[in-house]
Write a structure and sequence with these properties.
It comes from Buddleja alternifolia. Residues 227-290 form the P-type ATPase A domain. By secondary structure, the chain is α+β, with helices and mostly antiparallel strands. The protein has helices at 29-45, 48-71, 73-80, 125-129, 137-147, 159-167, 170-182, 188-218, 279-282, 294-301, and strands at 3-5, 13-15, 17-19, 81-83, 97-100, 103-108, 113-116, 225-230, 233-238, 247-249, 261-262, 267-268, 273-277, 288-291, 320-321, 326-327. A four-stranded antiparallel sheet has the order 11-16-13-14. A three-stranded antiparallel sheet has the order 5-6-7, with no helix packed on it. Strands 9-8-10 form a three-stranded antiparallel sheet, with no helix packed on it.
């Protein structure tokens, strides 16, 4: 059995596939046989016009199969891949994983399935209050290998790749097919002009998408130097080197020309308070006041609270600074 049930919000099931050799792909060798049969049997028995019609039919069917491998992932897997046996997952590999939509899923031999790479984001308040960051360089190295750097790169496609994606859409292919039929009419030059307009429109759409992606790449947190508690002391590191579980000190920029600081990651306020601007995330223009210390928060709300009584409480969204928030 090569199917694994993940049960996540993004990925439900996972099938293990292996790419076929090009000579055994179902979108290649059957058509090679058909072309060979056409050349050996059809051409000698029919005249040139009839043989050309047969060749055109085979070619049209081949093109349609090729397009379906682009339009349908399931069809592409059926044509170009073969399923792996269950025993193929135990190949002595240290770790089997895949990345999907910027999320990593790791194979577990014990559970015999894939699970999303866990983060320490659902612990109790007491756990976070007692956290002192990473105490040794070995732990830092292990965490870096597990989670990687604190970067989120938007892919920057080329204009040619976007245009190719646009013209491979089913509706555009149908339009080109219709233009081809119109070319059989007497006014074929009108059809060619229509085809030119179609390509111009798709080029403009690809250019617009490229501009949007370029603007999206600018909306990211710039790398900044932060004070992080590691190995028993405060050290300065780049925001791209942050790891889950780090204890970070964030303050507002001083001076008259001090700019608002963008939060480089989702963070829980452990001590102190912060006024943040969440307009880029929520659209609210009113800054939000967030308090970290549970005792201070309880006093502001007029309720009684102690660390022992609520140590097992879970963190709430109002305690969290999210990436792209700005400290005012």
């Amino acid at each position: 059995m090569s199917r694994f049930h993940v049960g996540g919000k993004v990925v439900d099931t996972v099938d293990l596939l292996r790419k076929r050799h090009w000579a055994w792909r179902l979108d290649l060798w059957p058509f090679a046989v058909l072309y060979g049969v056409w050349l050996a049997a059809v051409v000698p028995s029919l005249d040139f016009s009839d043989a050309s019609i047969v060749l055109g039919s085979i070619g049209a069917f081949h093109v349609l199969v090729f397009l379906f491998t682009i339009w349908s992932v399931d069809f592409k897997c059926f044509m170009q891949y073969s399923k792996l046996a269950a025993s193929s997952t135990s190949l002595g590999t240290e770790e089997i994983f895949f990345d999907f939509r910027k999320q990593r899923f790791i194979y577990s031999d014990e559970q015999n399935t894939f699970f999303k790479l866990p983060y320490p984001s659902k612990e109790t308040i007491g756990y976070y209050l007692k956290n002192t960051g990473y105490g040794t360089k070995a732990k830092i190295q292990a965490a870096t290998e597990k989670w990687g750097r604190n970067v989120f790169e938007y892919p920057q496609p080329t204009f040619q790749s976007l245009l190719k994606e646009q013209i491979m859409e089913p509706f555009f292919v149908f339009q080109v097919f219709c233009v081809g039929l119109w070319c059989l009419d007497e006014y074929w030059y009108y059809s060619l002009f229509t085809l030119f307009m179609l390509f111009m429109f798709e080029s403009m759409m690809a250019k617009s998408r490229l501009k949007t992606l370029s603007e999206l790449r600018r909306v990211k947190v710039d790398s900044q130097i932060l004070m992080v508690y590691r190995c028993g002391k405060w050290v300065k590191i780049s925001g791209t080197e942050l790891l889950p579980g780090d204890v970070v000190s964030i303050g507002r920029s001083t001076g008259l020309d001090g700019e608002d600081k963008s939060v480089p990651a989702d963070m829980l306020i452990l001590a102190g308070s912060a006024i943040v601007n969440e307009a880029i995330l929520t659209g609210e223009s009113t800054p939000q006041w967030k308090v970290g210390d549970p005792l201070e928060k309880a006093a502001l709300k007029g309720i009684e609270w102690s660390y022992n009584s609520d140590e097992k409480a879970m963190l709430k969204k109002e305690d969290v600074l999210e990436v792209l928030d700005k400290i005012l």
